[in-house]
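Anyone have tokens for MFS transporter? Sequence:
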Amino acid sequence: MSQLGTTASTQPGKMSKARWIYIGLPLLILFTVSMIDKSNINVLLANKPFLQDLGIKDGAIKGSLSSIFLITYAIGQFGWGFVVDRIGAFKSGLIGIFFWVVAMVMGGLAESVSALFWSRSILGLSEGVLYPIALTLTAKWFPSNEQAKAQALWFNGNSLGPVIGLPIIAMVAQSYGWRESYHALGAVSLLCLIMFWVMVRNSPSSHYAVSHTEKEFIENGAGSKKELANTGEVKAVLKNPIFWMLVAVYGCISIGFYGISTFLPSYLTEAKQIPFVQSAFINAAGYGLAIIVQMSSGFWSDKIMKRAVFVGGASALIIIFLLLAMFTSSPVGAQVLTILLISVLLMPAALTMTMLHKVASPQVMGRIGGIFGCISYVLAAIGPMVVGAGSQLSGSYTGGFLVLLGFIAVPLVLCLVLMRKGY
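Reply: yep, here.
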């Protein structure tokens, strides 16, 4: 497979911006499309024709469709972490993206819940490649004083995806049918495969658009951290208590995020009596605001180099906004609070992963990122199951959402410890 040349096409003395254009931008697009692909099911769970066609009647099945993705996503991240360190982010990305195209096509052809489970499982396994390749590319392409901004950029795809995708999926499903939403997303994912092949390379030294000056800046730039581990020291990272604190923070935040986001469209339509398409736009507005929140937090955390402050603060706001949204009697107030809630849901996850760069070097980031993601997303699968089972048992979403608050309180406490340790 052609690498389109390995020498820089720009003048040796000129600073190029290849790291942002050829790495940051494609990762942003990949995370945007992947988030649309995985959250497609969240919108369709509020679509009556979809539920009727596949015979979905209770909250437990709804929660399981989200949880099966998270479980296979966790398994995928673990396996891909080792693959990425072995064959590189470039080849790994091509393989993973190809199979998530296959998964979306399968979803559009599904005739039963079991077929949909297979589609969600393959999607989880294949999309599991994303975090190992993104963390590895960020470690190799950006100096430490740019890593929070870089990760905020591509992590914003998790917000941009719903902004673009949720309203479009809702309108396509309502106007043309739910199967067509799957087929359209499969086509978009195929375009992502082509984009990745053309633009991304494993390292600055193997990229056709990197100048000598940019290469030197990346390798020796201001704030470049001392290597903390090499390829033979994965065990040393796993013995570091900070690593496990970060796993707990990210896992509990993920429990809250997936528990809330899976059921928000259904919650708004059923509990707050908000029309189906309108609920999708409310969610999209929240993710739109989240883009601003994440980029601002990434910029300021790079300035003060204190990520845990922002993670802890966002955890507190999630608890406050969720409680107020559940118990307000005002429909308008519920919509505003939902937007504010969504705006802070993803920010702590991005900055928690930025802290991961302080405990693992680029040489082991694929494996460490895979292990980190695997454990975190196994925990994340608890979220939809808690809300789904809670709504089934109590007849409302309130009980399940209240349980989620206990998990979100854990990062708030752990961040106080991380702040004292300089994170």
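The two ends are 41 Å apart (CA to CA).
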